[in-house]
Amino acid sequence: MIRNGRNADAGTMDARFARRAGGLDRRAFLVGAAGLGALGLAGCATSDGMSLAEAAKLYGPVPDEKFPIPAVDVSKVDPKYFRRTVRYETKETPGTIIVDPKNYYVYRIEDEGHATRYGANVGRSGFLWSGDAYVGRKGEWATWTPPKEMIQRQPEVAKYARGMPGGLENPLGARTLYLYQNGAYTLYTIYATIDPESIGSGVTSGCVGLLSQDMIDLYNRTPVKTKVIVLPA
């Protein structure tokens, strides 16, 4: 059961997108700047042992997508949120997804006491929730439709009442995992974001966002019916 949720409708929309619904923040798409900034520090290692050059490769552009995804400006992400394999002791079966909103991480449980850890953004104050769910369906470049409650709070999104087609400006991004309970959609998702500065912060209305490159990795390894646990914040 999901607990402590409020206004779950906004779980399908990044709060930063809501503030700029009239247009796209082009800063997030400066692919060249992202690459050059990282390569200029190629000899530097992060506190987690990954060089910025390695991070720039991991989070490089994804040109073969339906909507080509730009490189991440890794200088705008705290290195502790870069994807990595970590020790994680749990009784949950491999493949289970565990969201830790307190520390801004998403874990995919692997074999032998390990997990793949991704940095994430989570719900802002008043929109945090916890509980067990499962992946009820998946979407690539999904259409986003703001719920009526969001339209009431944020009239600027009313123009998308009939749905916003997939694309880089769509708040669901390249991949979406829709969270369900007892056969019903909870209105919460795990989604892809191209905003590196959102990682490690509470900016959404309940959803959990991963960098697009991380989300594609998680999406490709997550079948429908996968168990999802959201820990208390």
Automatic annotation (TrEMBL):
Pathway: Cell wall biogenesis; peptidoglycan biosynthesis. InterPro entries: LD-transpeptidase, LD_TPept_cat_dom, TAT_signal, Transpep_catalytic_dom. One of its GO terms (molecular function) is glycosyltransferase activity. Residues 95-231 form the L,D-TPase catalytic domain. One of its GO terms (cellular component) is extracellular region. Belongs to the YkuD family. This is Lipoprotein-anchoring transpeptidase ErfK/SrfK. It comes from Aquabacter spiritensis.
